Automatic annotation (TrEMBL), chains A, B:
Superkingdom of the source species: Archaea
Sections of the chain in a coiled coil: none
Keywords, comma-separated and alphabetical: DNA-binding, Repressor, Transcription, Transcription regulation
Database matches in PROSITE patterns: HTH_TETR_2
Full protein name: Transcription regulator
DNA-binding region: 67-86
SUPFAM superfamilies: Homeodomain-like, Tetracyclin repressor-like, C-terminal domain
InterPro entries (alphabetical): BetI_C, Homeodomain-like_sf, HTH_TetR, Tet_transcr_reg_TetR-rel_C_sf
Database matches in Gene3D superfamilies: Tetracycline Repressor, domain 2
GO molecular function: DNA binding
Length: 233, 233
């Protein structure tokens, strides 16, 4: 199970030599990622298998092709098994979103430590990797694809609300640790976190929906400047 | 025609007293908005009527209900008139997006002047108004709703690319004017523009797809701090 989980939310290595202009912050030294060894989702074994099958189907076939049939092929069980737990593809993807954020959160929590600046850069680079692998692109695409559902359906709004709140909390805690350690200047950690998250999300959406690759690099570069000049004491 | 155009992209007044924490920047003094008096879309009279009918249908009925039938009702012409110009609702909405951005751009270009800091705040407040009117919500919702199309269809990607490029250029020119006038510090105007645009877009998307209203206020407040401390000389 551990290797599967590791595969799902593997942290992209920082590209320090190939694309230095894309890296956030000056320090690109990373400690090795510690994998989480347990699952905190409270999912049954079958549900967890469905989550992993969804992940494999997504990476192998892409979002546009994703279907309950493809997922059941990856699961090697009948579609009725999936429908026993999830009424629709959207319901399954909604749960998969949460599952992915849980994995992401666990990985971040176990891989960040006592270096708030490096930890913050690590979080940003994880959410906005220099090289967007096909795996990450498919996962980010789910966010873009499910967003319109959140305009009309409260259950989707709640899921997006929870995802943003959790990402924001991770950033906020890191900023707060930095302030407490005098690595960062005094600032409102919650405000800074929302600001960084908004910039990351805007960059993530633009990266997927436009052909403006240079804009991604520029936005990340300015985010790095902001952290260096505004946050670093 | 002028009043229609004015109605389409009316600039929301800055909420200086009700929600001061939401306003961007310190200065909330605005010159009156100058309305554009001509159309630069190169649309035929009928196409322009279709655009205005789409706008009215959107504001009156909301995005979820929007249909070619509703638009043709507003147009007071047969649906075949619309299909003569646009193959599908998506094709029409894609054109409507460009039409709206054209109007926005013209209004901004005629209402901003020789005060780069106020002009920049004005652009941000126009894209991220404190009070999101139903009209603005519907227009922003089109962006969220059409985004998934851009993941797969190049024609949508190109439209989103153009919209972002034009918004970025407006911000960049304003920043450049500020630097030239020694109102802003020396900085890379293109980088700053992409950064501000990314933050605006992330905030705009989160505002529509989550229940985190305080996050919007926090992100705007931090954007204001960034401009004050990073950009203002």
């Amino acid at each position: 199970m551990m290797s599967k989980l590791n595969g799902l939310v593997r942290i992209a290595p920082v590209q320090s030599s190939k694309k230095p202009h894309c890296a956030v912050g000056q320090s690109t030294i990373r400690r090795p990622t510690v994998c989480m060894t347990r699952d905190s989702d409270g999912l049954s074994a079958t549900e967890e298998e469905i989550m992993h099958a969804t992940h494999r189907a997504l990476v192998n076939s892409g979002y546009a092709e994703l279907s309950i049939s493809l997922i059941s092929d990856e699961l090697d069980k009948a579609k009725s098994t999936i429908y026993h737990y999830y009424d629709s593809k959207d319901a399954l993807l909604l749960r998969f979103l949460r599952f992915t954020v849980n994995r992401f959160e666990e990985t971040i929590n176990t891989s960040i430590g006592d270096h708030p600046k490096e930890d913050l850069n690590h979080i940003i680079t994880t959410l906005l990797p220099c090289d967007l692998t096909e795996e990450k692109r498919q996962l980010h695409s789910i966010l873009v694809t499910l967003s319109p559902q959140a305009l009309e359906q409260e259950v989707f709004r709640e899921q997006f609300t929870e995802i943003d709140a959790r990402l924001s909390t991770i950033i906020e805690k890191t900023v707060r640790r930095g302030i407490d350690a005098n690595v960062f200047r005094a600032a409102d950690p919650a405000h800074v976190a929302e600001y960084i998250l908004a910039t990351i999300k805007g960059t993530m959406y633009s990266r997927l929906t436009t052909n403006r690759e240079a804009a991604t690099v520029a936005a990340k570069s300015s985010l790095s400047s902001y952290i260096d000049s505004h946050l670093i004491s």
